[in-house]
């Protein structure tokens, strides 16, 4: 019980740090543009391919490969969006770096949750 609570607290802290970095990339007076906040859509979409593939009752290996491909595409898009915005000079490079740091925190939280809480009852990967 105590280790599970400790894990949940660590996940909450890591997720909070990631979201703080993302909000700082948008709200600091130096940057003051909210375009980087759109990476939150990728955070929301990231687990859906895996969840859908886990619900299908077949043992088809193409199912896992397709889910992994879609998940990797979503994750790479969330890292690419701030870089493209910075290259197009829509946002500043400092905001881009803060967004990328927030991405690392957010996806580390998702990975830690999956390997810490979900991996025991699933043979998805």
Characteristics:
transmembrane helix, single chain, membrane, 5 helices
Give an overview of the whole structure.
The protein has helices spanning 2-27, 39-45, 48-55, 61-87, 93-118. Helix 2 (39-45) runs antiparallel to helix 4. The protein has 125 residues and is an all-alpha fold. The protein is built from five helices and no strands.
SSE blueprint:
Layout: H1 2-27, H2 39-45, H3 48-55, H4 61-87, H5 93-118
Helix pairs in contact: 1-5, 2-4, 3-4, 4-5
Membrane topology: Multi-pass membrane protein
Main location: membrane
Family: Belongs to the OB-RGRP/VPS55 family.
Mean pLDDT, all residues = 89
Stretches where pLDDT is under 50 for at least 5 consecutive residues are none
Global Rg:
17 Å
The outline comes out as: flat
Number of E-type strands: 0
* Percent in helix: over 70%
Order of helices and strands: HHHHH
| Alpha-beta content class | mainly alpha
Kindly give the count of domains: 1
How much of the residues is beta strand, in percent? under 5%
Question: What can be said about this structure in brief?
Answer:
With 125 residues, this protein is mainly alpha-helical. It contains five helices and no strands.
